[in-house]
Amino acid sequence: MQAAREIEFGQFRLDLTNECLWRGTRAISLRPKAFAVLKILIENPGQLVSKEKVLDSVWPGTFVGDGVLKDNIRQLREALNDDAGSPAYIETAHRRGYRFIGKIAEPVPATQSSEIPISGGSKRIPVYRSSAKEMRVLGREAELAKLRGWFDRAYAGDRQVVFVTGEAGIGKTTLVQAFIAELEELSNIRVARGQCLERYGAGEAYLPLLDGFSRLCRLPGGDPVLTVLRHQAPAWLAQMPSLVPQSERANLQAQAMGATRERILREMAEAIETLSSETALVLLLEDLHWSDYSTVDLVSYLARRRDPARLMIIGTYRPVDVIVADHPLKGGKRELQAHGLCRELALECLSEEVVA
User: Fold this and answer.
1) Residue range 25-48, pLDDT digits in tens
2) How confident is the model at residue 321 (pLDDT cuts 50, 70, 90)?
3) In this model, does residue 209 exceed pLDDT 50?
4) What structural domains and CATH numbers belong to the chain?
5) 280 pLDDT exceeds 80?
6) 3-state SS string over the chain?
7) pLDDT digits (tens, 9 = 90+) for 165-203
8) pTM of the entire structure?
9) Which of 17, 148, 291, 327 has its CB 3.0 to 4.6 Å from that of 322, i.e. a possible disulfide?
């Protein structure tokens, strides 16, 4: 018997034989009509599908108003964690119809491993999905689902800046580490981890970024990252001398001499965008309430750049510490939120049932 055919996009699989939508190993409940709407949109990727065509195909010979179609589109967006204002999958053409804009892999038999093509090359990487090694975080399933959805958008080229906030000990690090552990099950996704440290005085500029990229270069497969820094961000590489041979350091110092703030920001932004054009890049910055002010500047600069990038920045911090210290992160995040350039995932206390 022929294996079921599937269509894969982002973290999702559409099982055409069994008429089911999957996210990794979890089935997502969809009404039959909503499934049919999604199927017709996916079968016409990138093309405008008029309301009339959808209604005729899904409700043949039946009079159905626009409200019914809109309700099914709303259910699909909820299932896909898709934002109507900034969609990653279903785009609305006002008064005309809808368009599926997600990146679709070739349909493959259900028994084969799922893959997504990487643009600009022949390499392929697995679809991001839950695995047997996935860490379980009690009481944070909804928060993990949001992080996965935002990663989907980042993978599609819509850069994401996410602030995970909450008081000390509430589980910010546990949540983020569980999410990162899922990502690290995949190949060709780079994760740079930077840690801010409590400081007494001005502190070193860009410390968590330098920390994260220094670690990334030392990991297996870090040579391409080092090459990009060498060619596009010499002022940054000059601040990581242990990564380059002694004979190269003097030349790097000369290139970095007199580097302005604007040049520093531009170099790292261009290096990050080059890296994230090849594969997804997740930049984790922990304890931003202790960050130097330059790091906040760079996060804001990266968030404001509008070139497509498979980039997800995750910053954790304690809101009370930011407010008490009058840290510039407070105003910087507020400004980004006002322009829709960042997201906040505020962790609440766990319920008594979960604690038990």
Assistant:
1) 777 877 888 899 999 999 999 899
2) very high
3) yes
4) 5-100 (1.10.10.10), 141-355 (3.40.50.300)
5) yes
6) CCCCEEEEECCEEEECCCCEEEECCEEECCCHHHHHHHHHHHCCCCCEEEHHHHHHHHCCCCCCCHHHHHHHHHHHHHHHCCCCCCCCCEEEECCCEEEECCCECCCEECCCCCEEECCCCCCEEECCCCCCCCCCCCCCHHHHHHHHHHHHHHHCCCCEEEEEECCCCCCHHHHHHHHHHHHCCCCCCEEEEEECCCCCCCCCCCHHHHHHHHHHHHCCCCHHHHHHHHHHCHHHHCCCHHHCCHHHHHHHHHHHCCCCHHHHHHHHHHHHHHHHHHCCEEEEEECHHHCCHHHHHHHHHHHHCCCCCCEEEEEEECHHHHHHCCCHHHHHHHHHHHCCCCEEEECCCCCHHHHC
7) 999 999 999 999 999 998 887 767 999 999 998 875 556
8) 0.64
9) 327
